[in-house]
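As promised in the previous annual report, we have extended the structural survey to additional targets. Below is the entry for Lysine (K)-specific demethylase 7Ab.
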Amino acid sequence: PVPKMATAQLYCVCRQPYDVSRFMIECDICKDWFHGSCVEVEEHHAVDIDVYHCPNCDAHHGPSLMKKRRNWHRHDYTEPDDGSKPVQAGTSVFVRELQARTFPSGDEILQQMHGSQVTQRYLERHGFRYPIAVHKMEELGLRLPPPDFSVKDVERYVGGDKVIDVIDVARQADSKMKLSAFVKYYYSPQRPKVLNVISLEFSDTKMSELVVVPDIAQKMSWVENYWPDDSYFPKPFVQKYCLMGVKDSYTDFHIDFGGTSVWYHVLWGEKVFYLIKPTPANLALYEEWSSSPNQSEVFFGEKVDKCYKCVVRQGTTLLIPTGWIHAVLTSQDCMAFGGNFLHNLNIGMQLRCYEMERRLKTPDLFKFPYFEAICWYVAKNLLETLKESREDNCLPPEYLIKGVKALITALRNWLKREVTEPASEVPDHIRPSHLIKMLTKEIQYLENGNCGSKLMKSQGISACPSTRSAHERRSHARRTARRLRDQDHHHSHSPKAPSNLDIFEQHTQEVLKRLEMGPNEEDASLNLKFNKVSTASAAVAERSLDNNLRLLLCNGQPNNAGEHFRVVCVCVCVCLKCTGLKLNHICSESATSPSTEEDAIQGMLSMAGLLYSHPSEDPSKGEHHAKLKHRIQEHKNFMDSQGSGSNSSSEAWSSHTHSPAHGESPTLGYQYCETSLSPPLHPSKRPASNPPPISNQATKGKRPKKGMATAKQRLGKILKLSRHKPFFV
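The corresponding structure token record, generated without further manual editing, is:
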């Protein structure tokens, strides 16, 4: 027989099974349980009921009995007011006493800045250690709804059915209610309680379109820069919060989750911040205070040396750095927007705050979502940053080095902890032990001076930028492209002598560029350009006489017998005239066919950005072509007279160089081709419009399509130059 399935017990007037996500209340008469939403009892009201009667029992036993208030200074207002117990945080008595206290002015630690000054570069140079106040949000790149945006507007954009977390200020207790119920409470003539909304994250609602977070929070955010799109863990959304508080709302001293930095903007109303600097002594006192059983009875501001009072009025934006301990009082009805972000400037402090949360056993609901996972992602990216700095002989900024060291220690501890705690936040595609090893290796390079830091200091070379900006790491494709460029950069970074063809191409391009300039600009431009060439290549490549630039290419290769060098020489003498370009002669030791000669000419001129006109294509230029062939034949005869050519010199070649005869066309059948004359860029400097090289199985080993080979490749193939043992004479 098939066993019968156990049926779930049904509750409430709706006869539904128990749902852990919904608030329920027990009737003290029938002992049945009811959903608060079904019997119109809000969660924050339930604590005020002494004896509850459900709707059925209410008809026979009368209405529920409410608790009687006996004090105004305790979270449990039913306690007798005998004066023996101290005031607790959040109560009406506490708020009155807080407003009567005196504090050092926040101006002592507050940095008043223009929004345009609050940049990533500024904070990287000067640090982000003190709160910053900005009075014009537009300069921050911050965009918000207009100041007349109301609580009802929030309901309209977010939706009244959204369940939100609400704090009962007098009890400092959290409860849940629908947004529509809070809006009803907010606009009620008599508010029986002080309720505060501080954790309404609206990134997944229509209201998100009305808010653009400050540029600095966007560019520095770990989540925006390092969180991959294909992560197994859901992306944390902590950048867009709407805070709605009524007068006398109070949030006790705390550090924002994960040591995040935070931005606040008061849209309307006013908030008062009580700020405490995160010194080691203050952090130790804070942890002790947070774990004490009488925490709510002790005002933490009295336990530290200084607690600064900072009033934030309508239209002001406040940026609070990592680890600052702060409490907030809403002095009048207020709506504010804010957000949290992790960043590279204070990695050590962020990790310290997170470990403190763990020791205090902070519930996951009040911690940064997947904090350890994002630290692994950050570690992987910072490893790339350190490698780039080492390859470029740049010294990373001190804050980044310290941060990576703190990160290594934390990652090691988390990895050890996984043995006893199975819950892991290590991403699947990350090898944790290997990553820690490589990070440690990079730090050792820095500490041992292997990264070139000593050289930098002696030469006064500035440190490298610390991190890539957000748009450079935004997608998987861009990160892959950068790695490809970095690999190419790694192989080609060390300076080396240019090859024959490199110099030939460079000079040809410069000659053509000169032809486009006026007579007065020619020499200055060429001198400026050629001075940028390395001394070695310039000494080899530049030979000029009477405004003539002569370039000689020779290629020597031993024959099979090893008796002597067989020389195949190609001489290109380019005579620079203000009116044009003339190719004087092309020589080869062995006999060549006319088609080979034309191919050689056309190949070189294609590289130089010129088009060679075949005589059959343009009969009017046949005479020039015949003259050119005649000169080529002369130089063939000259080569034959030199024997093997092993003793030929550049002077011998130059003595047979012809100057253009009077009346000859300076172009000799060559037409200017509209082609780019700019020198090739290094792969790492390639403009964004050019996509990075694609490497996949379908294209590996295949030759470029016809017409796609570079000029250098065409010239090398046509002339059959050996790239292995080239030399210039």
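The mean pLDDT is 74. The two ends are 101 Å apart (CA to CA). These points will be discussed at the next consortium meeting with the crystallography subgroup.
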